[in-house]
Amino acid sequence: MKDFLLSAAAGIDGDGPFKDRWYLxxxxxxxxxxxISSPPTLPAGFPEVKLPFITPPLFDAHVHLSLxxxxxxxxxxxxxxxNREEGLLRIMELLERYRSxxxxxxxxxxxxxxxxxxxxxxxEREPGRYAKVLPSARPLVMKGRYGGFLGEAVASLKEALGVxxxxxxxxxxxxxxxxxxxxxxxxxxDCGDLLFFPDEVAGIISRCDQENVPVMVHLNGPLSRVFLxxxxxxxxxxxGFYLEGEDxxxxxxxxxxxxxxxxxxxxxLEHPGLTEDKLEVVALTxxxxxxxxxxxxxxxxxxxxxxxxxxxxxxxxxxxxxxANALIKCGAPIESIFSAAYAxxxxxxxxxxxxxxxxxxxxxxxxxxxxxxxxxxxDYIYSNSSWSSAPPATNASA
Length: 398
Ligand SMILES: [Zn+2]
Prior knowledge:
Blueprint: E1 4-13, E2 16-26, E3 29-35, E4 48-55, E5 58-63, H1 73-80, H2 84-100, E6 103-108, H3 115-125, E7 132-134, E8 140-142, E9 152-154, H4 157-170, E10 175-178, H5 198-210, E11 215-219, E12 236-239, H6 245-254, E13 257-259, H7 262-266, H8 276-299, E14 302-303, H9 318-329, H10 334-348, E15 363-367, E16 380-383, E17 386-387
Parallel strand pairs: 1-4, 5-6, 6-7, 8-9, 10-11, 11-12, 12-13, 13-14
Antiparallel strand pairs: 1-2, 2-3, 4-15, 15-16, 16-17
Helix pairs in contact: 2-3, 4-5, 6-8
The structure holds zinc ion.
Zinc ion binds near residues 62, 64, 109 and 308.
């Protein structure tokens, strides 16, 4: 279905939340839009689709396509020992699945083999079938420290910049730096070692700034561990557990994005392999983090929904809905899930076109009921000139 009038009683588009708007699609492209109080003149019988609510497609800002989200060690090992061809096939299946849930763009944290980068290139050739991947290629980890299974180990800024250049040349959409360790399961508040020195991270960001490429920095503990007051914050902070009080205001003022990955942590409460005392640490940390995220909402931080899918218990697809709903529980308005994603993609992806902008191949999600306080999978998905869901009724077919 390529030529039709889309009328939405309410929704969210590039201009934010709206009421009563129409979009005229020809050849799948939005050629004109306007307010329902002044409808366009169209030939009799021109198909019209009326939907109660529409939004742009969803964005998961933090995934690990190469990792299994299983709690089971055996399943995790099975996935990590797949050969390249099998591993790629597995990711392509995930990308089809993401798309069928309305999640059309994913920011991947990278893997040592560059598998998600390769998948992003395959996906690009068939955008009507696969979700788009923003790959990190090989993330930067410090030699001999946490994260060896995630990326390319370096031992100095010079080595780090070498890997940055290779990643950029290979087609990375952003650079990921694992700047600190991970939260302890035995001591609440212990966020692991500092892995990169502040000046090293600043050097990486300044190199990426020259190419206008965003840097996502995995960081737990006070911001000042990695970013001294003279340092500029990166495009996004990932996780950000145990930030200090003044960090929230600094983050809000910087305009940097924050991907708190609330549910990747809280899902550990369901982990069958954790002992009672570890579960207590998980619960304490979760309460603390939810509180910080709530403060972030109040301060006006730009929060991205990122599931961290692939880490134990964080599922590819479902994880984004869980994370968005966790952010909403912390006080984030549901429209901010879309507006933050929109702002990130507009600011940091090349050739970004607003999914419902004029002159753009339309891409949107439709719901039979207005979204209020919970994000659910959409009832309708339209992009690349066709419905990938069952099509809604039109006045022509009704
Ligand atoms: Zn992650």
